[in-house]
Design brief:
Elements: H1 6-12, H2 14-36, H3 39-43, E1 45-51, E2 54-59, H4 62-70, H5 72-82, E3 88-93, H6 113-125, H7 131-142
Parallel strand pairs: 2-3
Antiparallel strand pairs: 1-2
Helix pairs in contact: 1-2, 2-5, 6-7
């Protein structure tokens, strides 16, 4: 007698079979979502659930959610062609677990030498006891 595969076990029991079917459906909807949405938005959002025809999409932050809401007609069109069970789309802001407060896709651009010189020059022209001088010098030091 050969051992049962994980796939066989998941499909064997009614509860697990339903869960497996729902997970497969969500993966298929995620692929449709990824093909309908520009790549930068795909990195900041994901299909979360499908319940009673309403597809719930989680956005990592408000900016991604706002952009997704703007392109809902295009996204809805992709789903109506490939997934007729989707009758509505809801966008919710839900940061990914462990993401902290980091913004998605923000690049750190250190100051160039010219900018550092300009800020240092500005600090040199200000009164020595000014809090702005301390802040500028600290900023240039960290950049």
């Amino acid at each position: 007698m050969r051992p049962r595969s994980l796939d066989d076990c998941l499909k064997a029991e009614d509860g697990l079979a339903r869960l497996t079917g729902h997970a497969e459906r969500l993966l298929r909807l995620q692929r449709i979502f990824e093909s309908a949405v520009p790549r930068p938005l795909v990195r900041g959002a994901r299909v979360a659930n499908l319940k009673l025809g309403k597809l719930v999409i989680y956005a990592d932050n408000g900016a991604v959610a706002a952009k997704l809401r703007q392109i809902i007609p295009t996204v809805s069109g992709a789903f109506s062609n490939s997934a007729p069970e989707v009758t509505g789309i809801e966008i919710k802001v839900q940061p990914r677990a462990g993401s902290g407060l980091k913004a998605v896709g923000v690049l750190h651009n250190p100051l160039g030498n010219h900018a550092k010189q300009g800020l240092t020059s500005l600090a040199d022209r200000l009164p020595a006891d000014s809090p702005l001088v301390r802040a500028l010098r600290q900023f240039v030091k960290q950049a």
